[in-house]
Every structure is written in structure tokens, then in C-alpha cells.
Specification:
- The complex is a heterodimer.
- Chain A is built from 13 helices and no strands.
- By secondary structure, chain A is an all-alpha fold.
- In chain A, helix 1 packs across helix 13.
- The longest helix of chain A is centred in the N-terminal third of the chain and has 34 residues.
- The radius of gyration of chain A is 22 Å and the shape is globular.
- The termini of chain A are far apart.
- In chain B, a hairpin with a 2-residue loop joins strand 4 and strand 5.
- The N and C termini of chain B lie far apart (51 Å).
- Chain B is an alpha+beta fold.
- The chains are: A mainly alpha, B alpha+beta.
């Protein structure tokens, strides 16, 4: 007979094995591969122009898409979380679209639209604007795949806190901006922060859509994830694992940053 | 400051929330909007506050037409059923919110908050957060927050609705005392008749988007304008004209309904004059009063309230026969709502 503690022990074990295979071991493997020949090998492996270009490009793209989607996400969350209208559910599904569409398809759509033979291709060419295989396309692709995170995190929080505090603020003389800044924002701050972190993580790590629209030109249009893939393909295992370790570290740092922020502002 | 509501109507879809409402609230009075849910009382309050816009009609506060005035410029204080305190702010910051918005000097704000904390008897609680307070304390903070900006009128939407019975009673007594000190024109919404009677100078009884009656608590209770008010402001037995309580004279008009309050019966253990036989089915002890459930000769049932002493004196048991005599009967024609409410009327009816 299996007793209750035994069943929980077995379930726990299964969960641990699963997590180890999927999460812990791969993470350890990356850091092991990156560092097992010593810190100097790691440093020389990543100290190349292509790596720095990829890092800078990734940071630029993230720095543009995260604020963009934060503002968009807040607006969308307000419209959906604070209003009842026809097509509300439809709008919610549309915002979720980037979750359900393969990033490669999203990338292809951008190519179709802005490519040489695309719908807007001719117009852009005549204006001498380069979108495809350049930073603008990478920003567009990244913005597309990271669109839902902020809205998705903020909407439930907005719905949960309800409108009463905002109404109270208005009866006390607050204008729309004051209501948002003094009442709504402090109430949704954790949902918002979490949404921004998810957006950030995805923006740093997006591969599929960026691979399609950027042309993956190492040294010019490769972001960090693409650099990792290219380096690995070109038998530069050290460089691949080195930059993979750096990507993973940035992700870990954001989580730590979030924890610190939460600790500091908690009352 | 007076509030004048004239010919205000409001529809939500097909639902007529307010139907041509006229109401005058005199300066310095505390008025209760009393009614069942869906009667329009909250909508009326929210219309005065500017949280709803009427489809037609005007709202005037202190002789100023505020019908289309932005809520921020109405200078009202609003208290919500679920407090609506700012969770991320301390008690002090909650109270000073309206003053901060108005950019009052720091020293003024500090002084005003101190006074208000004293007023709500929460002097030591300024630095706490709302989730560290009890329901009653939270509602007092909400009141202080509304009062801080020195509003012309105070509007309270079911202010005690979320509190338990004891705190509710304390807080409503406190509100009444506060009003006697401050004399701020106030309207509060409630579905609790006892609360309305205990607190208000005037009661506005509402039903289905209309005002049924306006009067002092005593007027509304003693002289209800119609069957709705009669049964809403107190418990009541509704009797058909065929009830054994009445003699043949009343059976003539089947459209009449007779209303007798449970405490308006004389109970005897022996037949007296016009008294009617009834059997005790159940005895329920409600503290200072005892509720009897009786059945009459025609098997209809009746509720009678006795005070404790009377009950002990009569020494009643279940299944015992008693003799009833109504002290006061009100009757309303179903179509034409006539009102007979003096004891003389009763004698005339019962003889």
C-alpha cells in the first residue's frame, strides 16, 4: 500500500528528475562548456568583433522594443481591463496572436511586407529606406513576438483591483494622469514589472523571427542568439558556449534584479 | 449646502434605474436613501456625485447646476461600501490624498490630517497600511479622506454594508454624532431600515426607480404612504379581507389588503370582546422580544411580537390557544391607495 507521504515523495522525485533533465543539467552544461578550460579561454573565445557587434545589436533592439511594448501593453491593458465593449474577447485573442503564431511565420510576414518584392518594398526602395536585413526589421520582428507579455500580465491585475480606488481618487479631485500615476500604477507595479521582465527576456533571446528577417549576417545583423547558432555551426564551440553562458547570465541577472526590487519596495 | 434633484431619469439598457426623480435635501440634514437592491438608490447617489450622468433632469448642489460638471469640480466627499482605500498608501497618505492633489502647503496638510485622525479616533494609526486595519477602522479612514477636502456634501454608498453587526452599530452611532457636530449635508444609501431610522433626519424610500415616500423616520413608520413603504420600513402581516380577524363588514371589498404590524396585536389567554381565536405554532426568542407564529381559524398564519415581560406574564406554550385583538390596522385599496391608520379607524372597522 502506498501511503500519502510515499506518494508525495514519488511525485516530488518525478518533478525533480523532469526539471533536472530539462532545466538544471542543460544550464550546468552550458556553463561547464564555457568555463571548463579556464576563464582565459572563455575570455579569448568571446573577445572578437563579431561577438561584440552581436551583443550591442541585441542590447539596442531590446532597448527599443521593451519600452515600446511596455507603453503599448499598458494602453491595451487599460482598454481591455477597464472597458466593456463588443469584440473585447476578440481583441484579447489578437493580442495573444504572437503567442500562437510561430516566430518564423511572423518573420516571413515581415519579409513579405517589406522585402524587395514585398507590398511596401518598392515604396521603401524609392525612398532609400532599408528595413529588411537591417536593424529596423529586427526591431519589428522582436516587437511582434514580445507584444503580449505586458498586456497579459497587467490585465488580470487591473481586473482584480477593480475601479473603486480610481473612482475614489477622482472624487478627491485627481485628474486622469494623477489617477494613473498615483493610484493605478502603484497597484499594478508588480504585474507590470513582471511583464517587462518577460518582454526583456524574450527580446534578448528571440531567434526564429529575427533569423528570417535579419539575414543572419554575422558581424552585421546577427543578434546574440544568432551569433551563438552561427558560431556553433562553424565549429567555434568555445565562442558558442561562451556567448550562450552570457545570454543565460543576463537572464539570471534580470531575475535577481527583480527580486531585489521586490524586497526593497515591499512593506 | 442644499441638493436639488429635479426630474432625473436614467436608463441602463432597458432597465429604468431612475424614473423622473424629484428630491430636495435641506442644508445640514442627513438623508437616507432606503430601498431594496435595484430600487435606484445607489444610482441616484452616484448621479449626485457625478459618477453617473442622468439621461434627463438636473442636479443642483448649493444652487449651482452640477448636472454636467466634472466630478473633480463638484466638491463632494464620497464614501464607498468597500472603503476603496488606496492600498499602497498609509492611513496618513490616504487622508492627505485630496489635499496633496490640491497642492496645499505641507504644514496645512499635516495639521488637517492630525485633526482628522483625532476625529476618527485613530491617532496612533497614521503610519499603518489599510490591510493592517479592521473593517470599521478602514471605513473611518475613508470618511476622514472624504472629509479632508472639506466637501460641500458628503455622499455615502452603503457605508456600513461590509461590516459585522456590532461594528456596524458603533459606526452608525458615531456617524450620527459626527453629523451633529459637523452639520455637513449628507446622503447615505442603505437597504437596512433600522440603519436608516437610527441615523437619518429624513428617509427617502425608493422602489423601482421611483420615490415612494419622503419623511422623518417616525412619519415613514407611522404613516406609510403605501403598502410598499409599510412593508419595507417594518415587519408586517398582510391579511386578506376574508381573514377571521375581520367581521363581515370587511369582506365586502376583495381589493382591500389589510396590514398589521406584528407588535400591534393584543394577546389574551381568554376570549375578550372582538378577539379572534388562534393557535401558537412556534415560539422564537429574539432577545428582548418574542416572536409567535400563530395559525388562525382559516389556517392562515400570522406573526405576532410580544415583549419579554408580556410573554412571561401570559406564560404561553406551543399548541396553546390564544385570543388576538389587533390594535392598529392599516388598509390599502389595491388600486386606490387609501390610508386608515388611526386607532379610531380600527374600531370602526372591527366593530
Amino acid at each position: 500500500m502506498l501511503t500519502k507521504p510515499k506518494i508525495s515523495a514519488i511525485l516530488l522525485l518525478i518533478a525533480l528528475i523532469y526539471l533536472s533533465l530539462l532545466l538544471f543539467l542543460p544550464a550546468i552544461a552550458i556553463f561547464y562548456e564555457a568555463f571548463h578550460q579556464g576563464i582565459n579561454v572563455f575570455l579569448t573565445s568571446i573577445d572578437q568583433r563579431n561577438f561584440w557587434q552581436a551583443t550591442i545589436l541585441t542590447l539596442i533592439v531590446t532597448a527599443i522594443t521593451v519600452p515600446l511594448n511596455t507603453i503599448f501593453g499598458l494602453c491595451a491593458a487599460w482598454v481591455i481591463g477597464r472597458n466593456q465593449f463588443r469584440g473585447r474577447t476578440l481583441l484579447l485573442s489578437i493580442i495573444d496572436l504572437p503567442f500562437s503564431i510561430s516566430p518564423v511565420v511572423a518573420g516571413l510576414a515581415i519579409v513579405l511586407l517589406y522585402g524587395k518584392n514585398g507590398w511596401l518594398g518598392g515604396l521603401l526602395a524609392s525612398l532609400n529606406i532599408q528595413i529588411l536585413f537591417a536593424t529596423p526589421a529586427i526591431v519589428l520582428a522582436t516587437a511582434f513576438v514580445t507584444m503580449p507579455f505586458v498586456a497579459r500580465e497587467v490585465i488580470p491585475v487591473l481586473e482584480e483591483i477593480g475601479e473603486e480606488q480610481e473612482t475614489a481618487a477622482r472624487t478627491l479631485g485627481a485628474n486622469d494622469w494623477q489617477v494613473f500615476y498615483r493610484v493605478t500604477l502603484p497597484n499594478i507595479r508588480w504585474g507590470l514589472l513582471y511583464g517587462i521582465l518577460l518582454t526583456n527576456a524574450r527580446a534578448l533571446g528571440e531567434f526564429g523571427a529575427v533569423a528570417v528577417v535579419s539575414g543572419s549576417i554575422v558581424g552585421r545583423t546577427a543578434t546574440l542568439p544568432i551569433f551563438v547558432e552561427q558560431a556553433y555551426k562553424n565549429y567555434q564551440a568555445e565562442a558558442a558556449f561562451g556567448s550562450a553562458a552570457i545570454l543565460a547570465s543576463i537572464a539570471a541577472l534580470t531575475l535577481i534584479f527583480k527580486e531585489i526590487l521586490e524586497q526593497k519596495t515591499r512593506h | 449646502m442644499s441638493i436639488t434633484i429635479s426630474q432625473v431619469s436614467k436608463k441602463f439598457g432597458n432597465f429604468q434605474a431612475l424614473d423622473n426623480i424629484d428630491l430636495d435635501v435641506q442644508p445640514g440634514t442627513l438623508v437616507a436613501l432606503l430601498g431594496p437592491s435595484g430600487s435606484g438608490k445607489s444610482t441616484l447617489l452616484r448621479t449626485v456625485a457625478g459618477l453617473e450622468t442622468p439621461d434627463q433632469g438636473r442636479v443642483r448642489i448649493n444652487n449651482r447646476d452640477t448636472t454636467n460638471l466634472d466630478i473633480r469640480k463638484r466638491n463632494i466627499g464620497f464614501v464607498f461600501q468597500h472603503y476603496a482605500l488606496f492600498k499602497h498608501l498609509t492611513v496618513r497618505e490616504n487622508i492627505s490624498f485630496g489635499l496633496d492633489i490640491r497642492k496645499k502647503p505641507r504644514q496645512v496638510i499635516k495639521q488637517r490630517v492630525k485633526e482628522l485622525l483625532e476625529l476618527i479616533q485613530l491617532e496612533g494609526f497614521g503610519d499603518r497600511y489599510p490591510n493592517q486595519l479592521s473593517g470599521g477602522q478602514r471605513q473611518r479612514v475613508a470618511l476622514a479622506r472624504a472629509l479632508a477636502v472639506q466637501p460641500e456634501v458628503l455622499l455615502l454608498d452603503e457605508p456600513f454594508g461590509a461590516l459585522d453587526a456590532k461594528v456596524r452599530q458603533e459606526l452608525r452611532d458615531w456617524l450620527r454624532r459626527l453629523h451633529d457636530e459637523v452639520h455637513l449635508t449628507s446622503i447615505f444609501v442603505t437597504h437596512d431600515r433600522e440603519e436608516a431610522m437610527a441615523v437619518a433626519d429624513k428617509i427617502v424610500v425608493m422602489n423601482q426607480g421611483k420615490i415612494e415616500q419622503v419623511g422623518t423616520p417616525a412619519e415613514v413608520y407611522e404613516h406609510p404612504a403605501n403598502p410598499f413603504v409599510m412593508s419595507f420600513v417594518g415587519e408586517v402581516n398582510v391579511l386578506l379581507h376574508t381573514s377571521p380577524i375581520f367581521d363581515h363588514a370587511h369582506r365586502a371589498n376583495p381589493a382591500t389588503r389589510f396590514f398589521v404590524r406584528p407588535h400591534d396585536f393584543e394577546v389574551f389567554t381568554t376570549p375578550q370582546g372582538d378577539s379572534v381565536l388562534a393557535k401558537v405554532k412556534r415560539i422564537i426568542h429574539l432577545g428582548w422580544q418574542v416572536q409567535l407564529e400563530l395559525t388562525l381559524g382559516d389556517r392562515s398564519s400570522l406573526i405576532v411580537h410580544l415583549n419579554r415581560e408580556e410573554f412571561v406574564r401570559l406564560d404561553l406554550k406551543t399548541e396553546q390557544n390564544v385570543y388576538l385583538e389587533p390594535r392598529q390596522i392599516k388598509c390599502f385599496e389595491q388600486v386606490k391607495q387609501d390610508l386608515f391608520n388611526s386607532p379610531a379607524d380600527h374600531h370602526q372597522l372591527a366593530s
